[in-house]
Design brief:
The structure holds two protein chains of two kinds.
Chain A lengths: L7 H11 L28 H14 L5 E2 L12 H7 L2 H4 L11 H18 L3 E2 L6 H16 L3 E5 L4 H10 L6 E5 L1 E2 L2 E2 L1 H6 L5 E8 L10 H9 L3 E6 L10 H4 L3 E5 L15 E5 L12 E5 L5 E5 L6 H4 L12 H38 L5 E2 L8 E5 L4 H10 L2 E2 L2 E2 L10 E5 L6 H15 L1
Parallel strand pairs in A: 1-15, 3-4, 3-7, 7-8, 8-9
Antiparallel strand pairs in A: 2-10, 5-6, 9-10, 11-12, 13-14, 14-17, 16-17
Helix pairs in contact in A: 3-12, 5-12, 6-7, 12-14
Chain B lengths: L44 H12 L22 H7 L2 H4 L16 H18 L3 E3 L5 H18 L6 E5 L5 H8 L3 E5 L9 H7 L4 E7 L11 H10 L3 E5 L12 H4 L3 E3 L2 H4 L14 E3 L11 E4 L5 E4 L16 H37 L15 E4 L1 H4 L5 H10 L6 E2 L8 E4 L7 H20 L1 H5 L12 H6 L9
The chains are: A alpha/beta, B alpha/beta.
Chain lengths: 444, 483
């Protein structure tokens, strides 16, 4: 099966038109010496067989666990209307809207997405999407390096370790220098950070809420960053922006983040959504596609890909980024999700997450030997200290039907007994109570 | 159409979370909270659904229109893969689960998909092993170039240059530059092949790699490709294969057998995963034996007992290029597609893709200039130079096609062909569809001679006419703002 519609007769007629007598002749430019040494792909299967086979694999994954693992990737409810809309083939079987007259649906949807990202982050301009939160942060760092002509990046160690590691990978052959600032009592250490601000600093990167779930107001830091002529970059969790102070309100120049929480399934790590917003003076340094509004010959509003002279297909090796395909369909998910919730719904979602996490804190703190860390306020994720190695506890909790949290020892030295617990709106009072009871039993 | 925000009505709801089952917590200190609510539209669920349904109808898509966009392989995306990718066992899996103690056993299904995809792609391309992590083709290129850099570093050499032909995709030089290399461009000869004299001149021991597509962006298979790879290897440079055009040669030729060291694939092209309006794609990268140890962290391995695990102990690895294991949902669809087609189906796909492109080529060459008149592979590149003389440019042809219900071919790429029109029909289009398209192209050629303004006015039957792109760039309006 190959979804080829040709009948034998079609093939003969077409070959004749081309002036050939066999399909093999079409490949005559490939010398015999370059023919495949092997091509041992199994024979094809029916749609039914492939579907059954993959259904069997899907149930080998344990998705029945009650999940309290977040660590930057969250289990939020996705309204059915989101799926219904992104499953429209007029969206998902189109490609990048290079031809505006037959792509107004996509272009308008992206323009609206850009508006939503600007509103959430409190910044002026957004692009059409990037791959994920980590690559978006890397692109932001490089934007700052280009915009300032400097090469030192100061970053908080409260930034997701996965993202920090990605930044190191991407810049390993470039002359970019990183300084990492320790987290003290769950929050960015101002004192340490200020020591590294100088005329070589291109940017300071902060995350809010940080990896430990702690919420901060970074306005004071941003002010100091600007004094040395550097840019301030925020990595944010978009659902939290339903209630938390936005990067724009704190004065940040660029905000990026992982958009997965906005209607995109966890899906074992992807596809996700990198978003990026910035102050308008940085727009020409931005990577990726950008949609703009304009008018047609009759003065009617229309949308088009714009500011393309930044991009690889025009500028080649001088482009701001090499990105071509982005995550449009995930951006559409995010836009539809936010459109459904609206202003009140998003606020409600953020508050619900906050309330549930606070409830979980109170439930867990009654367990003997468990200490809920309260040095900083948190959003929907927080740290607890266990009386023994968190790995061991996590392992035993799986048997009880819980993915009870992310063991911080995996990412941070000296934190073997710490567990990061995320509580989204999907967790019921009952789930949280059972989590506490099971944890008590495991520790008992 | 009105924007979402122009349909806003205060107090309206499209979704609500109903009553909470936990007590309201003490509010956070005000300094942590937003002062200004985000201006988001409030609509009912029906209004949102209708808004987007109406928007979707303004798009051309593979399911609704012939979409011969050269170099993008807009083939049909079989529906069954969508159903598989929507299985909850796959969609609900948290990526950190296998990183928990004992958690590897909780993700065996997905780990197997990744492992088996790696094996299948390795066999299809003749490479030793793949990383499934790169999130798109260009991301794969960047990963590939970083692998090349790591390889040379391990050899104790810091090579400076990457060679690309002038016909290459823009992503090639961009990826090379972003990874820290200087780019040297090699010209193309009038026969469509790379200038080997110039190539030899530039191919010094300071060249890290040569990046090529094969077949190239003119849709031609360079019979001297092996010479090119051999020459690069002779000076210690590596060969990079841009897999954008792999749909032309499944089972006919493998980049690994030609001597390519690094290969990226666009699963959304060759392996039929939907393009999603510009993504998500997936750009797995395959390598030859000598580059295996540099592949990103982590890799899925198969244990002796047949179970699957993530390998993090990769000391020579370039590190993390994606947060997890790639665009899993996309990889899954491509895996299902490969299982469905199998060996014969993949070969048949390439054969029909090449047949269709050649059919269009011979049927149109009388009407449009064909700069390289020989058997092409999966796509053919025409030039509208003849039509341009009467004022009908490639862009006008594109707009007229839109009026006739076709998504236009790629135009003005590759850059080395003036007024280029790059047509990639793909294997899933029928002879009847091609014939109708050919007829419209012939009609345009006739109009260009007899009544050019009929073409240059187009489109006339779409929701909008041609847009003022200069205004869009000079006075950027990139978001809606309340009045």
């Amino acid at each position: 099966m190959s979804y080829v519609p040709h009948t034998k007769d079609d093939i003969q007629v077409m070959l004749k038109a081309i002036g050939l007598s066999s399909v093999d002749e079409l490949f005559r430019d490939i010398p015999a010496s370059l023919r495949p040494k092997s091509f041992n792909v199994p024979a094809g299967s029916s749609e039914f067989d492939v579907t059954q086979r993959l259904k069997k694999l899907s149930v080998k994954n344990a998705t029945g666990l009650v999940n309290f693992v977040g660590a930057g990737f969250y289990d939020h409810f996705i309204p059915a209307a989101v799926d219904a809309i992104v499953n429209r083939p007029e969206f998902y079987t189109a490609y990048t809207p290079y031809q505006p007259e037959c792509s107004q649906g996509w272009l308008q949807a992206i323009y609206e997405y850009q508006t939503i990202i600007c509103e959430l982050t409190g910044l002026d301009v957004s692009n059409a999407s990037l791959y994920d939160g980590g690559t978006a942060l890397y692109e932001a760092a490089m934007m700052a390096v280009r915009a300032t002509g400097r090469n030192k990046i100061v970053m908080d160690s409260g930034i997701n370790l996965i993202y920090r590691t990605m930044l190191y990978t991407y810049t390993s052959n470039l002359s970019v220098e990183f300084v990492e600032i320790p987290v003290v009592h769950g929050q960015s250490s101002r004192e340490e950070l200020y020591k590294h601000l100088d005329d070589k600093t291109a940017a300071v990167i902060l995350q809010n809420p940080n990896f430990f779930g702690a919420v901060d107001d970074h306005s004071d830091i941003v002010e100091r960053v600007h004094k040395v002529g550097a840019l301030a970059i925020a990595s944010v969790y978009p659902v939290s922006l339903g209630m938390l102070k936005s990067p724009g309100e704190m004065g940040f120049d660029i905000a990026t983040g992982e958009g997965q929480s906005l209607g995109i399934p966890l899906s074992f790590g992807g596809p996700y959504l990198g978003f990026m917003a910035a102050k308008k003076e940085l727009v020409r340094q931005m990577p990726g596609r950008i949609v703009g509004a304009t008018v047609d010959k009759d003065g009617k509003r229309g949308f088009v890909l714009t500011l393309q002279t930044r991009e690889q297909h025009i500028r080649r090796e001088k482009a701001t980024s090499n990105i071509c395909s982005n995550e449009a369909l995930c951006a559409l998910r995010a836009a539809v999700f936010v459109a459904l919730l609206g202003k009140d719904g998003l606020k409600e979602l953020a508050l619900r997450n906050y309330d549930k996490a606070e409830f979980a804190k109170s439930e867990l703190s009654r367990i003997k030997g468990v200490e809920v860390k309260r040095s900083s306020p948190t959003f929907n994720e927080f740290t607890i200290m266990l009386p023994r190695h968190a790995d061991d506890v996590v392992y035993k909790m799986i048997d009880k039907g819980f993915a009870c949290g992310f063991p911080l020892g995996r990412f941070y030295k000296g934190m073997d007994n710490y567990l990061l617990v995320a509580v989204t709106e999907k967790k019921t009072r009952e789930d949280i109570r059972r989590l506490a009871d099971s944890l008590e039993a495991v520790l008992g | 159409m009105k924007l979402l925000f122009e349909k806003h009505k205060e107090g309206r709801r499209g979704f609500s979370y109903e009553k909470s089952d936990v007590p309201e917590a003490k509010a956070l200190d005000k300094k942590y909270l937003r002062k200004n609510d985000a201006h988001l539209a409030s609509l009912s669920e029906l209004e949102v659904v209708r808004h987007y349904s109406c928007l979707s109808r303004l798009n051309y898509s593979v399911d609704t229109n012939f979409y011969p966009l050269g170099s993008c392989t807009m083939k049909y995306n079989p529906k069954f893969t969508e159903r598989i990718a929507a299985l909850e066992g796959f969609t609900d899996l948290h990526p950190l689960l296998p990183q928990l103690s004992g958690g590897g056993m909780l993700a065996q299904g997905s780990l197997e998909v990744l492992y088996e995809s790696d094996r299948l792609l390795s066999e299809i391309t003749g490479m030793k092993g793949f990383t499934m992590q790169p999130l798109a083709g260009a991301h794969g290129e960047l990963t590939g170039v970083m692998l090349i850099a790591a390889y040379h570093k391990a050899q104790g050499a810091r090579r400076k240059y990457i060679l690309v032909p002038d016909s290459s995709h823009g992503t090639n030089p961009a990826s090379a530059a972003i990874a820290g290399y200087e780019v040297i461009v090699i010209p193309t000869l009038p026969d469509g092949n790379m200038d080997l004299v110039e190539y030899k001149k530039k191919l010094t021991s300071d060249v890290a790699a040569v990046m090529l597509t094969c077949p190239d962006t003119l849709g031609l298979f360079n019979p001297r490709i092996k010479e090119i790879t051999d020459m690069a290897h002779a000076v210690g440079a590596l060969m990079y294969y841009d897999g954008a055009n792999l749909n032309a040669m499944l089972g006919k030729c493998r980049p690994g057998d030609i001597g390519f060291d690094v290969v990226h694939l666009n699963l959304h092209k060759t392996f039929a995963t939907p393009h999603g309006g510009g993504g998500p794609g997936a750009g797995p990268v395959g390598v030859s034996e000598r580059l295996l140890e540099f592949l990103p962290i982590s890799l899925v391995i198969r244990r002796a007992d047949g179970t699957f695990a993530l390998d993090y102990h990769r000391h020579k690895s370039i590190g993390y290029i994606a947060p997890f294991y790639g665009n899993f949902g996309v990889i899954l669809k491509a895996y299902a597609y490969i299982l469905r087609l199998g060996r014969e189906g993949l070969i048949a796909a390439s054969e029909a893709a090449v047949l269709n492109a050649n059919y269009v080529r011979v049927k149109l060459k009388e009407y449009y200039d064909l700069p390289f008149d020989k058997i092409c592979m999966h796509e053919c590149v025409f030039s509208a130079s003849r039509q341009a003389k009467s004022g009908v440019h490639a862009i006008d042809i594109a707009k007229y096609l839109i009026d006739k219900g076709y998504h236009p071919p790629t135009i003005y790429f590759p850059l080395i062909v003036k007024e280029s029109i790059m047509i990639e029909p793909t294997e899933t289009e029928s002879k009847e569809t091609l014939d109708e398209f050919i007829d419209v192209m012939i009609e345009i050629a006739r109009l260009a001679k007899e009544n050019p303004s009929a073409v240059t006015q187009a489109p006339l039957h779409m929701p909008i006419k041609r847009l003022d792109e200069t205004k869009a760039a000079r006075e950027p309006n990139l978001r809606w703002q309340s009045q």
